[in-house]
Amino acid sequence: MTADEQTPQVGECLSFEDESRSPGLVDGGHPATQPSVAPPASQDELVAIENVAARLRAAYPLADSATVEATVRTAYGSFRQASVRAFVPILVERRARTVLDAAARAAVAEARTFQPPPAAGSGP
Hints:
Blueprint: H1 3-6, H2 43-59, H3 65-77, H4 88-113
Helix pairs in contact: 2-3, 2-4, 3-4
């Protein structure tokens, strides 16, 4: 039997040897389609995320503090379902830096292409 033959296909029902151990169904749907419950964030993780925000505020002094914090919050939210939490802070920092770097590059490009209007009284 190949690995493809052992893997249930979309629409196939997974069988549970002991139905009492199967995940609960909220709406009568398939257990595999139910959202998993994220583990709660530890105090250490929250402190690490605050430290990430502080480092990014220092690394991007021209960015608004609220923008940096919103970027960190959005990046952190994208990892809410992660079951292994040890690397969440570093992944959040990497994702937030990617977004902030892109925003900084866009701001520089916009500043380079900005043409100020001609001053009053100048010209023909």
